[in-house]
């Protein structure tokens, strides 16, 4: 491997090509005074007072760790502040975050986390229900279903809801087809998540549930899996085949303060949050927010953005106001949402979530003094991330060729099932194939999740565990020594 700055610069050309040219910033949303009678006519399902006949619950989760993933925990902290100002009580908000950002040695403002270039601290007051090693898929699913005995560690808080209650779940992190990342292994598999939601429904402990999901290929989590009739409405940052996008990244407009070498937020996430915190949420329906978030996240004309999707009981979105789930900040009582007017075009640039770590290492490298140990460290981190990517991409390609032949392999691995069909029929096969791959080739880790569709297609093609093990052993003679490939934390499946 070549270790010099010129090589880093060359590699970076590909990274920087992900950053689009921005459009001028226009802060052109219009605030209109609320007129109670107008609101009641326009929004017959909005509620006249704070009595919604039940309790609002929320589960907020950031699935990552590491300073290069600053934005996910910033998103979750920000979401907490909105719900808190909306009137939800701490006892009803359950927060999962690794909590390694605020006091990270890379954080230029110790103890403070921001989610917008000019934003205030969003870290203060956030409940630390499940942090560090307690951020597990088991605890997350148990918190949703309300099963206290299944919880290990943490505050023990779960969604202890009743039949009249409303539940809001928000997840943000990396993902891949059928899978959502976690700061601990294993990751969240779509079938387990949807099963937990079905269980919650079967227990009769909510009136309606809204799920906002930001991750790459997040549409694949509900596609063909989340049925109608559970009173669950979900939106995802992207469809089943595309990445989602980080925003407020170094080099964007507006850019984070210069001392931040990391993205501050994610595009879909800041779109719903900045919309929610500017309006009287009694007067805004889920559907109106979806339309606004969809347009901002699509980032039309720039070529950088993703397709926000709706799943489940979409009818809920037209009937229900955001107020049922998020409450509303009394300071916004006079700021009603009036369709197009409230679309804020803040940033038209974005960075593919999958490249945000490289952007961090590059920005760190670029700014570190010549010859410093910091520069050396950033260079090493950059090369490790790049070589992990190449290793995973090449191993997967080679395994495909060994299993399906040189000509047929790309077609089999890249097959996308028609809309409405789940990624894979046998999810246990998918988990088994991931473990087999990782045993021979090392951890897929954050970047490798992009290959989950190939692994799913290996199952769909009827390959056996034995065949997969032989192909993986041939493709990878050993697990690479870099930290991304490490199996220390176990398998991701
Ligand atoms: C709760 O979790 C425990 C431990 O995992 C399990 O044995 C039990 O069946 C669960 N209860 C329900 C109602 O699902
Ligand atoms: C996990 O939870 C336990 C029990 O609440 C707590 O003692 C421990 O400090 C937590 N670990 C982390 C890393 O937060
Ligand atoms: C909303 O407008 C009314 C009438 O102008 C005013 O009395 C009230 O204080 C305003 N509320 C807020 C929260 O700004």
UniProtKB/TrEMBL annotation:
A Pfam family assignment: Legum_prodom
InterPro entries linked to this entry: AE (IPR043577), Legum_prodom (IPR048501), Legumain_prodom_sf (IPR046427), Peptidase_C13 (IPR001096)
Domain Legumain prodomain: 380-476
Signal sequence bounds: 1-22
GO cellular component terms, semicolon-separated: vacuole
UniProt keyword annotation of Cell membrane present: no
Gene Ontology MF term list: cysteine-type endopeptidase activity
CDD domains documented for this protein: legumain_C
Alphabetical GO biological process terms: proteolysis involved in protein catabolic process; vacuolar protein processing
Key words, A-Z: Disulfide bond, Glycoprotein, Hydrolase, Protease, Signal, Thiol protease
Keyword presence, Hydrolase: yes
Active-site residues, record numbering mapped to chain: 174, 216
Protein name in the entry: Legumain prodomain domain-containing protein
Species of the source: Nepenthes gracilis
Organism phylogeny: Eukaryota, Viridiplantae, Streptophyta, Embryophyta, Tracheophyta
